[in-house]
Structures are given as structure tokens and as C-alpha cells.
Amino acid sequence: MEQSGQPQRESTLASLYQIVTHRSHLLSEQESERQAISALIEYLQVFQEELANKRNDHFIPFDTGLYQVDKAQISASLYLIALLINEALRKKSIARTGRKLMVLSDIANMLSYISPCFGIANISPALALMLYERPSGFLDPLSDAEWQMLSEKAVADMLQREGQPGQQRGAATYFSGRSFYAIKTYQFANNEALHKAEEIVATEKVRLNLFLEALQGTLRFLDRLTLLPQYQEMLLSINLEADRTILAEQMIALLMSLLGDSVSVQEEHEQKSKREIGIVESELSLPALVNLQIRKEEHTSEQHIYHLTLTDSTHLDEPITFLLRVAESGEAELFEDDSDG
Fold first, then answer.
1. pLDDT value at position 196?
2. Residue 292 falls within a domain, yes or no?
């Protein structure tokens, strides 16, 4: 093997790494959207259970405290979630690009109504304005800076409930308000209340993140779906007087059907991606006289393995076989492959 072929070989392998890791990222993203839809269905089923509860007003105990759930608010939140999904289901056009999915008051009400049910009553209030004002709205996950801002605001709000700035306040608090009550009181002395508020908010952050992953992942899927040329607009039939139990069933049925249809959506998206990065069937088009073929693929929940054959008639005497292993984290390892795969 000639030494002069090394730069060309390294360039080819670098191109291969970029192509395959990009494709792996797309596959992981699509699978995460499917998981998000499944998770949102489970959240809607929780609402169904609450609607079936004979008590109109009751407390749900979490490890952070007691959260007061109101059946009327659960009913209203289902209506608002249906409005959000309907708006996301509208077929995209140039005129609709950048439009917000929901007005600020509806976002605030939706989050306020659902927060006790999911144990996020302290961290969620400041989220409405953030989702409304950020350019990506509901679609992109919150950044680290946004999570930090949300958490700090929640802790400050909890500590202010016993009094206003500059006023005398009690020696202890159980953080009453926002449909939340701590199980015991906490002293302001020695920052006991501060540390407890931070602990409660950190735990609620985990719960809120799970809910946002479900909601935002579903909305990202719908955003991609409604951009497809062949998409036919389909909307939920909703009105203020609609039976909320039936509305929940309609939303679940719709999301279940989307899970079934998502395979074709993925194929369409993948074909578009292949055109963008130069993938044709099972071969990758690289610089002249260089050919790279994917002989076999193996995919698990933890990694993606590609068996490759590199042909370079200018610099290589014979084809070289490689094995590319890409982890879910995006890290890749490249080995020479002696197998027949």
C-alpha cells in the first residue's frame, strides 16, 4: 500500500464518519419522537383516571409534598391540550411559518391546571412566559440557562409566599400556595427553608422535564409531519361543551394512529436526508475513483454498527473492509473488519 494514499484515505474516512453519524442522529431523533408520543398518551391516560375519580377536589401525595388536584381544572386542561395539538396538526405554509401554537393566557392556564396532577406546581408558573417568548416556542428542549432561570425563579417565589420584601415574616413556612403544601414546616433560620425549596424545585424539575419531553417530542413530530407534501390536514373535533372523557379518547386514538403512520414519515424524512448527504441505495458517493459501500447494518438500543467496504482504485491495491461502531451518544470507533459480514 502506497504511503501517498494515506491523506486520501483519511479524507474518505472523515467523510464517512460525518455521513454515518448524521444518519445515526436522525434515526435516534425519530425514535425519541415515537417514545414521546407514547409517553404523552400515558399522561392523557392519567387525566382519564382523574376524570373518573368521584372526588372533585383531592390531594395527591408526592415525596415533595401534597398537591391539590381539581377535576374542573383537569377537564379544562384537556381542552387546552386538544387546542394545542389541533394547531400543531394544521398543514404548514409559508404564511404560517413562525406563528405561535398558543396564546400566552392559554399556555399559562394549561400549565397551571395540569401542574398539581404531575407534581410540578412550584416550578411550572414561570414556564408559560418562557415558552411564549422564545423563538422556538414549544418545539426545542429548554437550554441549561433556561432551566437555571426557571429553577431560581421558582425558589424565589416559594420563599416569598410568607411575606413581601421588606416586611416581617414568620419564622417558618410550609410553602402553602399554588395548589401545593409541604408535609412539614421549615425554618428560615440557617437557610433551612431555602435549602428545602431548592430540593423541592430540583425534584419537580425532573418531573417537568419528563412531561416536556413527551409534549415537545410529539409537537416536533407533528411539525415534521405537517410539512410533508402529501400530508392531508386532520383535526380533532372539539368545542367547549365536548365531553372531556371522549375528547381524551379521541386524542389518544389520534396519537396511536400517528405511531403507526410514523414509519412512513421516517422513510420520507430519511430519503430526503439521503439526498442531502449523497446516499444512494446502499452506496455512498465520495470523490472520483473512491467508492464506499455499506455491506451490512446492525442496530440496537445502545449502538449502530456498519460493515463497510472502501475501494480506491488510485491509491489502494485492493478493497479495504472496515467496521464503524456509533454509540447512542454519537461517539464513533472505526476498526478494520476481517469478518465476511
1. 93
2. yes
